[in-house]
Structure formats: structure tokens, C-alpha cells
């Protein structure tokens, strides 16, 4: 569920900024956003009532606007029940009243799907049931202040997650080997829903468990998401292309671009420089090694380019903050070759992933499942890439920039 950051709210912004659900600088007319967009800038007259309406979702994007759904945060801390039966009753109630809001997309208006349809699908698919219970238990843990109470929810969440992932892998194998390779909507809708939950589970679980590490945890869930696409194939693509909820969203490729801000441009330039150095540094190495360097160079170049697009389309004072949710799809867009580079411990690939973690950290004040994930990714990669003092000056600079972003996001 979205968490709130204390800040002063104004009711005096222009109508265009209010309609887009973004903060107006109130320096017009025209204000800065309208001046950059070339849109008409009109201020309300007379001033609107000071009563705030939180019922309207943002017009576009993947995340709730900050401060939305005040009622989604329960006043009382959840208390861990005395039996498994009562725990699952509590978690299902909490899913339908609280947790589902942290995975739905307000711009798509898909709240009823997550709140109502998922429990019905879960009656037929155990992997979805255990995934819901796991995610809700992690959310309850994040809302718990008492350490013992929190630890019990985390233990339950990990158990449900382990069972859900095993069941989901088995389900994908059955679909692949089964006689019906073209599933109907009723059979692949639960798979698509669970695939959307996977990255949220990855971010949520990694914050509470030491386990296999942040990078490996991310890769594990990524591979499951890719497995969904392989199994569903064209049928899944066709379904998504015609889904009424998906059609309400603005595609990432169609988002308007703005100039990248200076701090982002600096770190992108450093990453590109580090990537290009691998080619000049590979001169004299065996042919096979040079071929591998070229493959990873192209993969990292693509991943850096996608980050540059994200900075141009989804970040900045005049951009709808809800667009920031697109960062969760970045790894999937970066592709298999880039993930292979990460798995091989490629230094540049890890540095790019570290910057992604620093960006994800900025979502931490909006959604509970991103609260600590980005910082932990940055810390793990900084330790791995910069260990033993072997990092060159450029690598150390990139690490310092990523850490600076994390610190800035937490202040």
C-alpha cells in the first residue's frame, strides 16, 4: 500500500497540473510545466475549497499519487493470530481491504480485479492463493512495529512464497507439456496476474530475508516472469493488447520526453564511459573473450539507453509522479543478454543494475514494498564491485553517485 510522506499541500495550482495530478510550481500563469508542454495554463477562480478530494485516481501511470487512499492504512497494527486457520482468514481479509491497493494500477481502474477476481481465481490455483497470502504477510510485517510480531509475519510470508513459487514452476511446466498449447483467457489470466505479482514479491521478500542476496533474488523472479511470457506466447500478447484495463494506460514508448536533468545525465555518461572502456581494454585478449565483451557491451548499452528514456519520460518536477512505476519493467525490457551479464558478474552490468536500485529507492515513500529494496541493492553491488580496493576511479565515482542518490531519496 502507498505510504505517506509528510509535506505541505497546496490548493492553488493551475487546473492543468491538477488534472494531471502533479505538483504545480504556482509561478504562472503560465506555470513551468505548462510553459514546457505548451498547454493552456488556467488558475481556478474563485479558489477551490480547502477540502481535499482523494477519490480520483491519477490520469496515467502505474503508481498511486502520493497521499492517495488514506483509508487504506489501518489505524491499528496487525496482530499475529494464534493458529494457521485464523492467520489465513486474517490475511485474506487484509488482502481484500488493504494489500490489494499496493499492487493495483489506479490509472487502469483495475482495483476490482485484484480485490474481487484474484480471490476467485485463487480458489482454482494454489500458486495464486499462496502468492496472495505471502504478499499480504509481507505487507503486514511492514506495518508491524513490534519485532516479534513482525518476525512471525515474515516467517509465514517466506513459507507461503516458497510454496507459491514451487507450485507456479510446476504449473508452467504442465502448461508447456500439455496438449492445449493455446490456453483460454480463463486459464492464463491467473498466470498473468501472478507474473505481475512476482516483481513486487521480489522487492518485498528481499527486504526481509538475507537468503540468496538482492541481485540473485531479483534474477530468480525475473526468470519466472520471462517463463510466463514463453509459456503464454502470442495468446498472452493478444490478450494484453485487447485488455480494457491495459488499454487505459499510456504505453512507455508513447510517453512524452523532456530533457534529462543534469545529475541523471552525469551518471548516465559515466556508465556509458565505463561500458566503452571494456572494448578498448579487451585489445589483445583471446578472440572468444573479445566476442563476449562485445555481446555484453551491446546489452549494457541497451540497458543504459532504457534508463535514459526513463529519466526523460518519468522523472522531473513537471512529470506525473505515477509514471515512476515504469521502472519496475526495466529489467524485463533490458532482456536476457543483459541478465546473463549480471549472472556472470560483469562489472558494468552490475553498475547499471546498481543505478536501477538507486532509482527504485525513490519509490520507497510511495509503496511499502520498495521501502528498502533499492538501498540494499546498491549496498550489495557496491561491496561486490568495489571490494579489495580493486575498483578504478571511474567505478568508484559511479558507486559514489548511486549512494548519493539513495541518501537523497531517504531525506
TrEMBL record:
Look up keyword Transcription and say if it applies. Answer: yes
Q: Which PANTHER family match?
A: STEROL UPTAKE CONTROL PROTEIN 2, TRANSCRIPTION FACTOR, PUTATIVE (AFU_ORTHOLOGUE AFUA_6G14150)-RELATED
Keyword Transcription on this protein?
yes
UniProt KW keywords: DNA-binding, Nucleus, Transcription, Transcription regulation
**Which one Pfam family would you cite for this protein?**
Zn_clus
Species source reads Cladophialophora yegresii CBS 114405
Among InterPro entries, the record links this protein to: Sterol_Uptake_Regulator (IPR053157), Zn2-C6_fun-type_DNA-bd_sf (IPR036864), Zn2Cys6_DnaBD (IPR001138)
Q: Which SMART domains match?
A: GAL4
User: What are the recorded GO MF terms, alphabetically?
Assistant: DNA binding; DNA-binding transcription activator activity, RNA polymerase II-specific; zinc ion binding
Residue ranges annotated for the Zn(2)-C6 fungal-type domain, each copy included: 13-43
Which protein, by its recorded name, is this?
A: Zn(2)-C6 fungal-type domain-containing protein
Region listing for Disordered, in residue ranges: 41-81
Known Gene3D superfamilies for this protein? Answer: Zn(2)-C6 fungal-type DNA-binding domain (4.10.240.10)
Amino acid at each position: 500500500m502507498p505510504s505517506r510522506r509528510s509535506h505541505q499541500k497546496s490548493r492553488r495550482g493551475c487546473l492543468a497540473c491538477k488534472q494531471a495530478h502533479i505538483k504545480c510550481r504556482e509561478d504562472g500563469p503560465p506555470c513551468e510545466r505548462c510553459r514546457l508542454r505548451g498547454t493552456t495554463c488556467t488558475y481556478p477562480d474563485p479558489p477551490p475549497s480547502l477540502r481535499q478530494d482523494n477519490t480520483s485516481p491519477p490520469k496515467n501511470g502505474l503508481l498511486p499519487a502520493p497521499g492517495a487512499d488514506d483509508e487504506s492504512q489501518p489505524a491499528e497494527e496487525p496482530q499475529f493470530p494464534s493458529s494457521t486457520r485464523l492467520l489465513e482468514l486474517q490475511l485474506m481479509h487484509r488482502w481484500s481491504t488493504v494489500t490489494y491497493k499496493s499492487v493495483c494500477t489506479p490509472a487502469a481502474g483495475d482495483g476490482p480485479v485484484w480485490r474481487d477476481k484474484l480471490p476467485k481465481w485463487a480458489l482454482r490455483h494454489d500458486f495464486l492463493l499462496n502468492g496472495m497470502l505471502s504478499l499480504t504477510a509481507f505487507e503486514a510485517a511492514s506495518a508491524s512495529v513490534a519485532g516479534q510480531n513482525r518476525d512471525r509475519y515474515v516467517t509465514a510470508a517466506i513459507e507461503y512464497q516458497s510454496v507459491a513459487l514451487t507450485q507456479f514452476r510446476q504449473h508452467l511446466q504442465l502448461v508447456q507439456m500439455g496438449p492445449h498449447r493455446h490456453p483460454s483467457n480463463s486459464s492464463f489470466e491467473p498466470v498473468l496476474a501472478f507474473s505481475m505479482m512476482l516483481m513486487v514479491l521480489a522487492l518485498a521478500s528481499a527486504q526481509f530475508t538475507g537468503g540468496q542476496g538482492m541481485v540473485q533474488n531479483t534474477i530468480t523472479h525475473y526468470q519466472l516472469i520471462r517463463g510466463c511470457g514463453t509459456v503464454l506466447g502470442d495468446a498472452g500478447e493478444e490478450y494484453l493488447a485487447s485488455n480494457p484495463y491495459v488499454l487505459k494506460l499510456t504505453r512507455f514508448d508513447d510517453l512524452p520526453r523532456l530533457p534529462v536533468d543534469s545529475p541523471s545525465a552525469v551518471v548516465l555518461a559515466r556508465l556509458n564511459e565505463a561500458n566503452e572502456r571494456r572494448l578498448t581494454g579487451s585489445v589483445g585478449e583471446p578472440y572468444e573473450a573479445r566476442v563476449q565483451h562485445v555481446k555484453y557491451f551491446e546489452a549494457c548499452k541497451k540497458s543504459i539507453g532504457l534508463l535514459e528514456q526513463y529519466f526523460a519520460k518519468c522523472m522531473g518536477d513537471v512529470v506525473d509522479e505515477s509514471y515512476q512505476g515504469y521502472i519496475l519493467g526495466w529489467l524485463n525490457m533490458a532482456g536476457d543478454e543483459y541478465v546473463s551479464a549480471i549472472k556472470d558478474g560483469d562489472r558494468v552490468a552490475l553498475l547499471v543494475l546498481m543505478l536501477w536500485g538507486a532509482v527504485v529507492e525513490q519509490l520507497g515513500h510511495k509503496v511499502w514494498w520498495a521501502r528498502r529494496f533499492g538501498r540494499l541493492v546498491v549496498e550489495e553491488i557496491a561491496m561486490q564491485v568495489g571490494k579489495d580496493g580493486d575498483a578504478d576511479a571511474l567505478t568508484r565515482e559511479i558507486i559514489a553517485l548511486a549512494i548519493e542518490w539513495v541518501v537523497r531519496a531517504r531525506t
